[in-house]
Amino acid sequence: MDDKVNLAEKLALLDGPYRPGIVGYYNDNKVAVATMLGEFTWHSHPDTDDLFLVLDGHLTIQLRDRDVELGPGELFVVPRGVEHCPRADEEAHVLLIEPRGTVNTGDAGGAQTAPEREL
Amino acid sequence: MDDKVNLAEKLALLDGPYRPGIVGYYNDNKVAVATMLGEFTWHSHPDTDDLFLVLDGHLTIQLRDRDVELGPGELFVVPRGVEHCPRADEEAHVLLIEPRGTVNTGDAGGAQTAPEREL
User: Searching chain B, which residue's CA lies closest to the CA of residue A4?
Assistant: First the structure.
């Protein structure tokens, strides 16, 4: 983790959508990449904001009152405590930043909960 | 700051190299974009890591013992306390994440110190 990270190379190592892999750390945060396809789980993170940067493809971050549509080179920070549900109609490649230990499904849990793991 | 951010649109608002502009916040961190051209200042940040993600162009992050060469879609986290000096032989577009209040020239100060400002 002390060398540069090529995000495309790391994305190629992933084994399925919504199964993020950690590519580095910034202070107490994990920097992760994920592919997204289909709908995730409605959830929130009571203790942290959640940063999404779309690298490739298109991602809809559904909020309870609106949808945020992201294309390549667009980012959105979901404020702490705000319910959201990512959805990608075609595969999207996404960079994520969250504190270490943050569970991908937040307060919702369920079948899409993925373990933290480094790529 | 509660809507999505198009990084290319924000980069177009910058008025010169090494004068970052804040495009959002993630917890206690600022998310900024900067253009880089030429050599910056050798400096370090004693209290924080420093995340660089190259969006376009090429950036050399000079460390005292080696150079880290970054192209588009490549990131590097300079660990806290590590002296570094960015250099771009052609203009590079870069995403930066640092804690709010972090000075761009770190412990070095000098003419390239830029005020924090939002785009």
Answer: B76
**pTM score, whole prediction:** 0.95
Give the C-alpha separation, A8 to A20, whole Å. Answer: 13
Is B39 near chain A, with CB under 8 Å? no
Per-residue pLDDT of A39-61, as tens digits, reads 999 999 999 999 999 999 999 99
Q: What is the pLDDT of residues B63-87, one digit of tens each?
A: 999 999 999 999 999 999 999 999 9
> Would you say B57 and B79 are in contact if contact means Cβ atoms under 8 Å apart?
no
Of B7, B25, B77, the CB nearest to A77: B25
CB contact under 8 A, A31 and B51: yes
A7, A48, A75 ranked by CB distance to B75: nearest: A7
The CA distances from residue B56 to A96, B7, B90, B91, in Å, are: 19, 11, 10, 8
DSSP structural state of residue B79? P
